[in-house]
């Protein structure tokens, strides 16, 4: 354990790659999922209910299936093979975006819809159109959206099935915390795997605590999502 | 509460925006939730819409404001049909204030930013509004942490920030104690004196007496009587009004 | 305001990490080798690849999966070189045009590992088929890879020769892990089961618990590794030149010496035999 925490540069590279892949995935998934969730919340069009049910179901997408789909897309014999993204961090980010976007979109949809029920009449009275109300609803729902981002990040950083398939767990290239843990477990190095697991949990707890702290400060200044 | 200032100096009524509803109807299961043949608000106001629970008061207010489109009938403001330009000069305050999850000042700025005002002008206007509502020290406080009375005052200030010609109020004091109610009534009267037409729904006869220039009695979706407050309270013309004023009209 | 600061910070952190990782990845030429868990879990490739990269400037990225999946990935063109151990499947891969030629690289051997109390009584035997028969008769728990890997194919061959229908026993005493060698060894250690493993993975494995080698030395346990260049005519994206350079090195004197020189706990795990 002390060996692991002793500033091993290889370990740090793995930790940083994990953070890089998962944070990028969450940023991209948020850019897609938040507007999508907001549109589903405020939009009124045929098939909307069905889309919401579908989105909620997609929150539970099995990572291995997503990994397989992304592999088939990015494979040299797949439709996007020319991009040469397979076995790169880019492929891992794509797989995690697929996993995380439904989570962020569904949670955004829910919080924006709840807020919209409260705000819509007042905003219309102020002359704000449905479309123009979206930024207001997103901003005023920011505490709930932060939780949605956290849920997405938690899913991404802890996920192994998809990233090992499209990343290949290549040393120094696509090896992240979870795939390293899987590898060390398969080597029978259970103590090492456990120690890495402890670090992974530590990262997840640190990120969550930091975000919760920010949210709590927001509440103290009366910005609470009451 | 008797020491309220006398309202509306003579002559100011001419500048008030007039509002006229004709043939307003909202049907429901063969009956009508709202059935207003004609209602013209052309005097100086404030206009009080009085009536028992379920009479359609809030529905009428929302129709006049354009939040709900009636099944039939028209609403005109100064002879013009309600469009974006007309609605931009209206504002509404709801029974339960809907405040944005931001600071007090940001709630006002939300409205001011939609107008062609510079940063400095907006800041000055916010200070002015906060002073008007007795919230001067609370600019940076979270709006959702205000007390009930403060929250409704902020909602009124935000409505006034748009400098509306017509301000609709839907039972704004029904959840407040007498002191908070009085502060809000003062704000409403000051706005009226500055030339804003006030159209207010209430179920509180005393409040209608205190604030109303003219009063409309609504019952089962119909305006049964509309007249100057003094006359209507002194000599009601219909049996329905008499029973309502006597507290005998429940539905 | 706090939320805005946080969002900006998150974005900056994400982009910063993105740029950093992007720079780190801007390496020289690289090839992707589809290989098996045994070459990676034993530590062989980590030990010998730096020697090749130093001399050639070509980075070797190893994707370590079961032989079956490695071959399928290579058929999809997702690799430049295939380094696996399932001779029949490799020869079919070449015959079907997916690979250029197959060359021997090295061998190690399989061993039958089992619980030290040896309920099937196979300890010390040198006939793997007889040992498998004994395990089946005793209905002693047996952990199989069950993943169409080279080891799995070898194991099934022995069952077939022993005349045992393992499909009928699946879920009873015959347990299919559907996983890599390491995960299967963990399973066997956990339930005190017999398991067929390559010697390299076994020696390097860190969670042996009560397991030990019970049967070894049967010529039928010989485990040959072959290397194949994925056919660039099937997949134009294949880096044929760099891939061939790696194959030449691996089967040449330098690579063969590196393989011979790789030891764990003083034991040589792989025996080079290119060109023999």
Q: What is the CATH topology assignment of the largest domain in chain C?
A: D-Maltodextrin-Binding Protein, domain 2
Q: Could you say how many structural domains of chain A there are in total?
A: 1
Q: What is the first-to-last residue Cα distance of chain A?
A: 44 Å
Largest sheet of chain C: 10 strands, mixed
Number of helices of chain C: 12
Terminus-to-terminus distance of chain C: 72 Å
Structural topology:
The complex is a heterotrimer of chains A (226), B (251) and C (276).
Chain A: H1 2-5, H2 9-42, H3 48-58, H4 63-74, H5 89-125, H6 130-140, H7 142-158, H8 161-167, H9 177-186, H10 190-220
Chain B: E1 19-28, E2 31-41, E3 47-50, H1 57-65, E4 72-77, E5 80-81, H2 84-87, E6 90-93, H3 104-112, H4 119-132, H5 148-161, E7 166-170, H6 178-193, E8 197-202, H7 205-211, E9 214-219, E10 222-228, H8 229-234, H9 239-245
Parallel strand pairs in B: 3-8, 3-9, 6-7, 7-8
Antiparallel strand pairs in B: 1-2, 1-4, 4-5, 9-10
Helix pairs in contact in B: 3-4, 3-5, 4-5, 5-6
Chain C: H1 2-25, E1 30-36, H2 37-41, H3 44-56, E2 59-65, H4 67-75, E3 81-84, H5 87-95, E4 99-115, H6 128-138, E5 142-144, H7 150-162, H8 166-169, E6 174-176, H9 181-191, E7 194-198, H10 199-204, E8 211-215, E9 222-230, H11 240-251, H12 253-260, E10 263-264, E11 267-268, E12 271-272
Parallel strand pairs in C: 1-2, 1-3, 5-6, 5-7
Antiparallel strand pairs in C: 3-9, 4-7, 4-8, 4-9, 4-12, 10-11
Question: Your description of this structure?
Answer:
The complex is a heterotrimer of chains A (226), B (251) and C (276). Chain A has helices at 2-5, 9-42, 48-58, 63-74, 89-125, 130-140, 142-158, 161-167, 177-186, 190-220. Chain A is mainly α and 226 residues long. Chain A has one domain (8-177): MetI-like (MetI-like fold). In chain A, helix 9 packs antiparallel against helix 10. The longest helix of chain A has 37 residues, at 89-125. In chain A, 50% of the residues are buried. By secondary structure, chain B is an alpha/beta fold. In chain B, 34% of the residues lie in helices and 24% in strands. In chain B, strands 6-7-8-3-9-10 form a six-stranded mixed beta sheet, with helices on both faces. In chain B, helix 3 (104-112) crosses helix 4 (119-132), helix 3 runs parallel beside helix 5 and helix 4 (119-132) crosses helix 5 (148-161). Chain B is globular. Mean pLDDT of chain B is 88; it is low at 1-14. With 276 residues, chain C is of the alpha/beta class. Chain C folds into two domains: 28-108 and 224-272, 3-Layer(aba) Sandwich (D-Maltodextrin-Binding Protein, domain 2); 109-221, Periplasmic binding protein-like II (D-Maltodextrin-Binding Protein, domain 2, 3-Layer(aba) Sandwich), CATH 3.40.190.10. In chain C, 45% of the residues lie in helices and 24% in strands. Chain C starts with a helix and ends with a strand. The interface between A and B is medium-sized, with 20 and 23 residues.
